[in-house]
Amino acid sequence: MPTTAPKPLGDVTASDSTLRRFLHGLPGVDPVGLEARAASLGTRSIKTTAKAYAIDLAISMVDLTTLEGADTPGKIRALGAKAVLPDPTDRTAPATAAVCVYPDMVATAKEAVAGSSVKVASVATAFPAGRAPIAVKLADVKEAVAAGADEIDMVIDRGAFLAGRYMKVYEEIVAVKEACGSARLKVIFETGELSTYDNIRRASWLGMLAGADFIKTSTGKVAVNATPANTLLMLEAVRDFRAQTGVQVGVKPAGGIRTSKDAIKFLVLVNETVGEDWLDNHWFRFGASSLLNDLLMQRQKLATGRYSGPDYVTVD
Question: Is 110 marked active-site?
Answer without folding.
Answer: no
